[in-house]
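Sample pair:
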Amino acid sequence: MEGKGKHFLTIDERKKLTLDGVQHVGSFDESEITLDTNMGFLQLKGEGMHITHLNLDEGNLVVEGYIHGIAYIEGRNAKGGKSRGKGIMNRLLK
């Protein structure tokens, strides 16, 4: 876990999510958004979700739609790989 910078998450009536501390958006569609944050990998699940604001320079994101779940997942990043410290050969030989 990196833990540097601010990390702030708010949800308004399960319809609007605001997040500070975003470093990278891995994938997104109406039912799932995956992100790398300064506090680890974050997975959002819901219905009709769309990103209405994204500024990676400032590290903030706003998602609107119906939020079903939020999960921090250890040992992954939004690009779908394991932790960033592993070399490409280690990942290929698994």
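Residues 8-92 form a domain with the Immunoglobulin-like fold (CATH 2.60.40.2000).
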